[in-house]
Amino acid sequence: MADLGLFNLQISMIKGIYSSIIKIILLASKPIILLQIMFVERLKILVLLLLPKIARSYEFSSIGEEQFPFIIDICKLSTSKSVIFLHYESIKEMEMTTMIFKWRRALSREGIASTNLHFSQLHKSSYYVKQIVRPYYIAVISNNNAINAFSLATSTFDMSSAMWLVIFIYKEHGFDYCHNPPGNIFHLKFDSEMLVRCGTENILREWYSVDTNLIEINDVAIWNLEKGITKMVTNSLYDRRYNLQGLIMKAVTVKGSSFINVKKNSELGGIFSELLNQICITLNVSFDIVSEVEEFGRWNPNKQTWSGAIAELYSGRADISLSGFSITSARLNVVDFTLPISYTKNLLVMQEPEKFGIKWSSHFLTFTNSVWIAILGILIASSILFIFLKIHNGTDRKIGCLFIDNFLEICGILCQQGLADFPVRSSLRIAYFSLFLLVTVLSAAYSAGLISFLTSTTHILPFHSLESFVEDGTYQLAVVRGSAYYDKFAVSIIRT
Fold first, then answer.
1. pTM exceeds cut of 0.70
2. CB 496: neighbour CB atoms within 10 A?
3. What percentage of the chain reaches a pLDDT higher than 70?
4. I need a labelling partner for 249 at 20 to 30 A (CA). Which of 151, 171, 202, 350 fits?
5. DSSP-derived secondary structure letter, 360
């Protein structure tokens, strides 16, 4: 019984110890279980938060892969060696930057340099393209905010100064900006070159504007992965845009212009009036003469303003000026010119000077220096030749005396004088006779040249440069006011 009691006591003690151990284990494991539960809950929340971002990243990656070959083909077609990507700065910045980075890496493998900027940095892109004649921009439109940002950036940018490719990479929810843009949202002009691709469509469309409030859209090419870009329209840019749809352009003319002028019946006259009428019929355009100015236009550095017809164009009061203009660098910075119709030289016409003079040196200007050198050579050579002939004939005079005698005799012959003693020997007679014939020909040529030279009037100008012209004060300079000729002389005088 004692043993049984001891056994029961031991069992009770073991149960107590076991219960204590279980409690300790439960108490020790409870924080771990709680931590596991908290980790699982936070993991669920993190997955729920990252799932849209992962989906967007996959969406951008898929779009980027689809646009890879298209962008490479379009860059090869444009033969551009540099590309600037434009995109909207948004919450998807990381995904957009990654996608464009992949495009840039693919273009780099093709030998095409590239960079990427935000729409707000469009005007700063001139730093990158100042050495490029026609830069190539690729604008990526990802949402409606991107459209607004791109529209704002292009409102003060010359859209005709570059070539454009606009890619709409999102599916429109609401208004379809890609197929039916509301007005001229990207501020395009008639000569703007912009290709547009809507999503992953195979059709490439051309956008430009005749009316400032409307965009013209034409299908110009088809692209597919196998054949690349296939042109639907084979003619050139301006062959496709020859119809201005009855546009009325505000025109300004210059009074006194020989090229174009306005008659009393408001019709155009002048040298190129008929040519201009034919252009109006071909392009389906007409002109409304809104003003007639006194001068062509020049830049006033003091007032920082333009004058004349250039001022009308620069301010937007007129669309075109119908006159014959000279192209200068200053004008090219503010207005555009048509292709030159005619080429003229710049001439400075002055009154004929009354004074002229003949100098004593004029007698030597009849022959050129080479002719005078040849005559002197004949004189010396003949003197030496006669020495040998006279020695051969048995003369006893010294060589020096013979040379002087011969030289004086030949000089006398050149001056139309005869010989005191004509030689008996046939060899000397032939030599002297040949010399007389040569001198006769030279004398006749010199006389004719001298008479012609002396009878032609040689004017003496009192100046030979613009500085000496100003210092002399004999002449007054007259140029057309507000013309390119005035600028040339005005700038020259200021610089001197």
1. no
2. 9
3. 77
4. 151
5. G
